[in-house]
Amino acid sequence: MLPVRIHSLGLDTTSNQPVVLLKEEAGLRILPIWIGQPEATAILIAIEGVEPPRPMTHDLLLAVLVASGLTLDRVEITRLEDATFYAALVLHGTSGVITVDSRPSDSIALAVRAGCPILVADEIMDTAGIVPDDDAEQEVERFRDFLDSVDPEDFASS
Fold first, then answer.
1. Is 122 helix (H, G, I), strand (E, B) or coil?
2. Cβ–Cβ under 8 Å, residues 149 and 34
């Protein structure tokens, strides 16, 4: 498993769908994962440290985990099948380690809130990771500029 961090979050200019870019911490590769608008909003709110007046779904789930005596140790992007990514929440409690199947977007939204590591299976990065060229790096910079100027409400469905 390779540790990654959120490199950027933005909109795919072709499909107008949100995409999160995960960059390996000890390398150059970036893993793009297309996600839904609600999950993009949840990730963006957490990245920006926005405190909603009422808990959002991911805040609620994290609060339930903590109240149940569980901690989110890490998120693992575990496999890629038919262009669909799969992930797992790795929880720790008094009874040991518990692994729960999850969508990557929900896992990432929880990881940002919990401040836990995000890991990607080596074979996924080998298969779907990309090394950005200069044009791709410029696109990433545009994503960063977008992230700096976007409001979480921009991702809300119409």
1. helix
2. no
Residue 80 within a domain: yes
Q: Per the domain annotation, does 139 fall within a domain?
A: yes
Q: Is residue 83 part of a domain?
A: yes
CA of 39: how far to CAs of 36, 126, 147, in Å?
5, 25, 15
Give residue for tokens 């977008």. 146
Q: List 101's β-bridge partners, or say none.
A: 88
> pTM for the whole thing?
0.82
Across the 158 residues of the chain, what is the mean pLDDT of every consecutive 10-residue run? 95 92 95 95 93 92 96 97 96 96 97 98 96 68 63 58
Q: How many domains does the chain have?
A: 1
What is the bridge-based pairing of β-strands 30-34 and 96-102?
A: unpaired
Find the CATH number of the domain harbouring 64.
3.10.690.10
What is the 3 state secondary structure string of 19-61?
A: EEEEEECCCCCEEEEECCHHHHHHHHHHHHCCCCCCCCHHHHH
151 alpha-carbon distance from chain centroid: 18
Strand residue runs (E) in the chain: 2-11, 18-24, 30-34, 71-81, 84-93, 96-102, 118-120
